[in-house]
């Protein structure tokens, strides 16, 4: 962590709102980005990001800087996302079961092609842990060690989730390709 | 279809997550095997596509940050205003702890027969190392709740990392051998030492609250 960030943290912990706002501005994009990819909607991601920064403010006094603030914030963000998903569980982790099989009718195939038009939607349909690892690894370019830290799991578990996620996405894209060829 | 033997390693290869010798073996195989080459290309395509994917769902690609910042700062100020003054933050929990100490000392002197099934978290003085932090968290059965576990380990880790090596154990779970009497003997002694109070002065309000909660929490043995 560089000196200026350390100074900002110390100042913010002492109640300096300008320092806290500066820290927030430096980290808000990545916090929002991860939250949006994990929880899905803009509104939910904003709520999560807001909660993350309030938590950050509460915990700054105890943040000693062993890790980078960004690393710590990834962890807080992932936890806040999971809290949100726990509250929303009935709607979470939904779409794969609804993807029609390749032998679906032409109408369904067209619908499927439209539904699978964006890779972002495919990522959303992954189970939460797979979605989180894929997001942190590929969109945030974290190492597996950092991913594991953010998720509070071992590197091995992070890799397993990541592998499942990527293979699932590959299957969906293959399926999409097959459907597009068929229609 | 990729070869069974190599399939699992292709993604690791794409991730540059293999030792050099292993990576060389995969490379050699992929150059010779069309189906594995195909699989690797697909995996790399997926990786690129994910990395380049826009944010999901409807709505803007980023919030209106000005309004966002104002909302967060408003909440921060509201919480700050609702917090008791620094002195009150200390007086209230210190009073509560003093009450516990008096109770503990009193009970310790009584020919008191504790209920057989209940013990209480004991405040003792002990050194916490990193591994113990995890053990304590595990003993509290917090594994089901990652945020709570994390908060706790952050607090504990921060205490140790700060160099506070001798702190009141937050949460020695009742082992079945502890009783009101031992609480009176050990807890009372710990509560009465000057070190204890010095240590308490280094804690933030939340950690202090956690301490109090634990002291108040019955542990079933």
Structure description:
Chain A is mostly helical and 183 residues long. Helices cover 74% and strands 0% of the residues of chain A. Chain A has 9 helices and no strands. Chain A has helices spanning 3-13, 17-39, 42-59, 69-87, 106-115, 119-125, 128-139, 144-151, 155-182. In chain A, helix 2 (17-39) packs across helix 4, helix 5 (106-115) crosses helix 9 and helix 7 (128-139) packs across helix 9 (155-182). The longest helix of chain A has 28 residues, at 155-182. The radius of gyration of chain A is 19 Å and the shape is elongated. In chain A, 41% of the residues are buried. Chain B is mainly α and 221 residues long. In chain B, 65% of the residues lie in helices and 5% in strands. Chain B contains 10 helices and 4 strands; from the N terminus they run H-H-H-H-H-E-E-H-H-E-H-H-H-E. Chain B has helices at 4-14, 20-32, 34-52, 65-82, 86-109, 130-139, 146-161, 180-192, 194-201, 205-216, and strands spanning 118-120, 125-127, 166-168, 218-220. In chain B, helix 6 (130-139) packs antiparallel against helix 7. The radius of gyration of chain B is 28 Å and the shape is elongated. The chains are: A mainly alpha (183), B mainly alpha (221). Chains A and B meet through helix 2, helix 3, helix 4, helix 6 and helix 7 of A and helix 3, helix 4 and helix 7 of B.
């Amino acid at each position: 962590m560089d000196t200026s960030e350390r100074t900002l943290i110390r100042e913010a912990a002492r109640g300096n709102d300008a320092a806290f706002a500066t820290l927030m501005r430096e980290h808000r994009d990545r916090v929002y980005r991860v939250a949006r990819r994990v929880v899905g909607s803009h509104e939910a991601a904003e709520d999560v990001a807001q909660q993350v920064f309030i938590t950050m403010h509460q915990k700054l006094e105890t943040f000693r800087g062993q890790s980078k603030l960004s690393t710590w914030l990834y962890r807080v963000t992932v936890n806040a996302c999971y809290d949100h998903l726990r509250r929303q569980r009935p709607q979470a982790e939904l779409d794969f079961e609804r993807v029609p099989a390749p032998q679906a009718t032409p109408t369904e195939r067209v619908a499927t092609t439209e539904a699978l038009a964006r890779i972002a939607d495919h990522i959303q349909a992954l189970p939460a842990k797979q979605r989180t690892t894929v997001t942190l690894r590929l969109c945030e370019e974290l190492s597996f060690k950092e991913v594991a830290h953010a998720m509070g799991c071992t590197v091995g578990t992070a890799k397993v989730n990541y592998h499942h996620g990527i293979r699932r996405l590959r299957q969906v894209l293959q399926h999409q390709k097959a459907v597009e060829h068929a229609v | 279809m990729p070869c069974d033997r190599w399939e699992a390693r292709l993604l690791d290869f794409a991730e540059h997550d293999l030792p050099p010798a292993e990576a060389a073996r995969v490379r050699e195989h992929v150059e010779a095997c069309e189906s594995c080459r195909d699989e690797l290309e697909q995996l790399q395509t997926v990786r690129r596509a994910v990395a380049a994917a826009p944010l999901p769902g409807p709505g803007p690609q980023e919030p209106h940050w000005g309004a966002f910042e104002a909302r967060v700062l408003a909440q921060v100020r509201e919480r700050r205003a609702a917090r008791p003054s620094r002195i009150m933050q200390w007086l209230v929990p210190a009073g509560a702890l003093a009450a516990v100490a008096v109770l503990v000392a009193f009970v310790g002197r009584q020919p008191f027969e504790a209920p057989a099934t209940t013990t209480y978290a004991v405040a003792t003085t002990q050194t916490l190392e990193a591994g113990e932090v995890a053990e304590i968290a595990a003993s509290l059965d917090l594994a089901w709740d990652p945020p709570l576990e994390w908060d706790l380990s952050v607090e504990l880790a921060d205490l140790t990392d700060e160099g506070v090596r001798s702190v009141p154990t937050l949460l020695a779970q009742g082992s079945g051998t502890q009783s009101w009497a031992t609480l009176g003997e050990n807890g009372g002694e710990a509560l009465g030492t000057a070190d204890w109070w010095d240590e308490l002065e280094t804690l933030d309000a939340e950690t202090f609250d956690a301490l109090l909660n634990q002291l108040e929490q019955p542990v079933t043995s």
